[in-house]
């Protein structure tokens, strides 16, 4: 009995130990859970880092101030603005001469560009004359206007701030109108006695960009630090904070004049290496016609040539007025030497030697990897647009032959030039625009020896612009013709001859290389490079008087188009 009692007591004690042992384990685990929660709460209540304080000089243009504010608003924990320079960790200002340059770095470089209305004869402006004008000598820039009157300066508030930073306050007597960019564009098409200075990114096809001390702002080899209208804005402070702010700012402020987004296209008129031109190539060398303009043509991202003639083996060189044309295959070397990138095939003579010659010509272009458009092995290929991407800009070329003759037009079975089908072309233009392309339309239209286009040209060219074409260009004309902007499309009614032997009057010797500028997906400007044909084959740049005469003739015809538009 005592043994049984002993066993009962022992079992009771054992059960108590087990119960308390389990409770002990629970007690140990509970504090661990509380400890983790406490740790989390402590980490949550840690103070966040103090935002980097930034002082912006009051003379900074508004567009920069707005960009800086966007950064601060987006990252309030990282950055803050202060009006007290002594409290700022980063300081932003304009510095013309910085002695302690090691403490500074550029935060933004603004590029300003002098411009005038498109139909202005002047091509260059002198930096010293700009400074004289700013100081009150308004007559210093009389040469900018076609009638030599004193021009009025149109600028935005931001540009006024920038110029004041660069040149000091303007004299009280100079004529300045403070306008928005939109208002400047509207006035520039109506008033010829004005000039302006605008940011590079605001350039527009309605304006003529002036060289500054003969410096071309579109020259990709330009050392921008040598350009007088370059304004640097600087930031000082600790390097880590500066880099952090610059990275954040890149989301709200694009680089000014980013040449990686710039595309330059040279468009040319008639090329037909036949008759007198072929004769000179035989006597003076195949490259002779391009010797004086090759560098200009090559100095572009894309160079277009409308070669109207097929290549034929053993093609005879004739100097007669016969209108059945061919070129020797060796003449391809001239096109390559001037840097051709794109061949247009709308020419009237593409089937002069039959379909086999046309197919042979296409095979030569394919062998040289030179893309072509507006002509092909059949109708479908001839009509299909040529699509190119260059420096981020999407460009589409599409063209057609209006004039014929009928045998030159491609069919479902035979090669040739694309016949004009306006319903198809308008729908293609609209489709290409929706796909983000800048559309260039070229015509082989009526050959008309005048600066003024025909009524039918006006109707057809404007139809393409109304459909959304960015540029409409007449490749048919042996004579330079008027230009206009219609529905935001730039129209060249005719460019004249490039390599062709016509010398019988001034108009057929004159020519234009239209240099179209595209930037960040938009056509922003066009330069008219003027040429004069010599020796039945060789174009050269015009001299000053020749250029003035040609521009006056073109612009006079262009003004007539404005009157026609206003009466419609």
Q: How does this structure look, described?
A:
The chain has 568 residues and is α/β, with parallel strands linked by helices. It has a domain at 260-567: Purple Acid Phosphatase, chain A, domain 2 (4-Layer Sandwich), CATH 3.60.21. Helices cover 33% and strands 25% of the residues. Strands 1, 2, 3, 4, 6, 7, 8, 9 and 11 form a nine-stranded mixed beta sheet that branches.
Secondary-structure blueprint:
Blueprint: H1 2-44, E1 52-56, H2 62-74, E2 79-81, E3 90-94, E4 104-117, E5 124-125, H3 127-134, E6 152-155, H4 157-167, E7 176-178, H5 181-188, E8 194-199, E9 207-209, E10 211-212, E11 230-236, H6 239-249, E12 262-267, E13 270-271, H7 275-284, H8 294-298, E14 302-307, H9 332-337, E15 342-344, H10 354-367, E16 372-373, E17 375-376, H11 379-383, E18 386-390, E19 393-401, E20 416-417, H12 422-434, E21 438-444, H13 455-466, E22 471-474, E23 483-486, E24 489-492, E25 497-499, H14 506-509, E26 510-519, E27 522-534, E28 538-541, H15 544-567
Quick recap:
33% of the residues lie in helices and 25% in strands. It is of the alpha/beta class and 568 residues long.
The helix-and-strand class reads alpha/beta
Tell me roughly what share of residues is in helical segments: 25-40%
Query: How much beta, percentage-wise?
Result: 15-25%
Q: What is the CATH level 1 assignment of the domain at 260-567?
A: Alpha Beta
Give the end-to-end Cα distance, rounded to a whole number of Å: 130 Å
CATH homologous superfamily descriptor of the domain at 260-567: Metallo-dependent phosphatases
Tell me which CATH architecture of the domain at 260-567 applies here. Answer: 4-Layer Sandwich
Q: What is the fold-level CATH name, i.e. the topology of the domain at 260-567?
A: Purple Acid Phosphatase, chain A, domain 2
Largest sheet data: 9 strands, mixed
- The overall average pLDDT, rounded, is 91
Overall 3D geometry? elongated
The rounded Rg comes to 35 Å
* Number of helical stretches of at least 4 residues: 15
Unreliable segments of 5+ consecutive residues: 1-7, 11-43
Please provide the count of β strands.
Answer: 28
């Amino acid at each position: 009995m005592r043994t049984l009692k002993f066993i009962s007591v022992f079992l009771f004690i054992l059960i108590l130990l087990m119960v308390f042992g389990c409770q002990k384990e629970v007690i140990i685990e509970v504090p661990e859970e509380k400890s983790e929660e406490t740790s989390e709460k402590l980490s949550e209540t840690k103070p966040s880092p103090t935002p980097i304080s930034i002082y912006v000089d009051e003379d900074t243009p508004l567009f920069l101030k707005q960009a800086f504010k966007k950064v601060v608003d987006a990252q309030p924990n990282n950055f803050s603005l202060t009006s007290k320079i002594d409290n700022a960790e980063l300081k932003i200002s304009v510095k013309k001469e910085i002695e302690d340059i090691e403490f500074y770095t550029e935060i933004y470089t603004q590029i300003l560009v002098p411009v005038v209305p498109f139909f202005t004869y002047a091509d260059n402006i002198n930096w010293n004359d700009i400074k004289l004008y700013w100081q009150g000598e308004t007559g210093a820039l009389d040469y900018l206007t076609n009638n030599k009157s004193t021009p009025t300066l149109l600028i935005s508030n931001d540009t006024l701030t920038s110029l004041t930073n660069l040149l000091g306050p303007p004299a009280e007597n100079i004529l300045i109108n403070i306008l928005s960019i939109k208002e400047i564009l509207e006035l520039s098409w109506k008033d010829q006695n004005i000039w302006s200075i605008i940011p590079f990114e605001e350039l527009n096809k309605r304006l003529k960009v002036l060289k500054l001390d003969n410096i071309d702002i579109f020259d990709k080899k330009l050392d921008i630090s040598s350009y007088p209208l370059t304004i640097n804005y600087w930031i000082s402070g600790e390097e880590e904070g500066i880099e952090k702010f610059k990275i954040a700012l890149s989301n709200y402020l694009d680089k000014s004049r980013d040449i990686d987004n710039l595309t330059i296209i040279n468009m040319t008129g008639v090329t037909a290496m036949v008759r007198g031109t072929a004769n000179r190539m035989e006597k003076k060398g195949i490259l002779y016609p391009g010797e004086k303009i090759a560098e200009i043509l090559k100095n572009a991202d894309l160079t277009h040539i409308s070669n109207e003639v097929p290549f034929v083996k053993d093609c005879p060189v004739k100097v007669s007025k016969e209108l059945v044309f061919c070129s020797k295959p060796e003449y391809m070397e001239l096109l390559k030497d001037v840097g051709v990138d794109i061949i247009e095939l709308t020419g009237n003579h593409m089937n002069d030697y039959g379909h086999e010659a046309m197919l042979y010509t296409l095979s030569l272009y394919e062998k040289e990897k030179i893309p072509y458009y507006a002509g092909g092995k059949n109708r479908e290929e001839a009509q299909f647009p040529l699509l190119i991407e260059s420096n981020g800009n999407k460009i589409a070329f599409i063209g057609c032959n209006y004039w014929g003759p009928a045998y030159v037009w491609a069919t479902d079975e035979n090669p040739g030039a694309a016949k004009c089908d306006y319903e198809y072309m308008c729908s293609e233009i609209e489709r290409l625009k929706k796909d983000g392309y800048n559309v260039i339309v070229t015509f082989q239209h009526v050959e008309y020896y005048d600066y003024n286009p025909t009524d039918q040209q006006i109707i057809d060219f404007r139809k393409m612009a109304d459909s959304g074409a960015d540029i409409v260009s007449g490749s048919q004309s042996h004579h330079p013709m008027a230009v206009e902007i219609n529905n935001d499309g730039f129209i060249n009614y005719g460019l004249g001859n490039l390599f062709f032997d016509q010398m019988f009057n001034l108009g057929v010797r004159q020519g234009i290389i239209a240099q179209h500028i595209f930037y960040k997906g938009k056509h922003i400007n066009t330069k008219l490079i003027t040429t004069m044909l010599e020796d039945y084959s060789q174009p050269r740049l015009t001299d000053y008087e020749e250029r003035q005469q040609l521009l006056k003739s073109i612009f006079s015809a262009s003004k007539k188009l404005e009157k026609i538009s206003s009466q419609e």
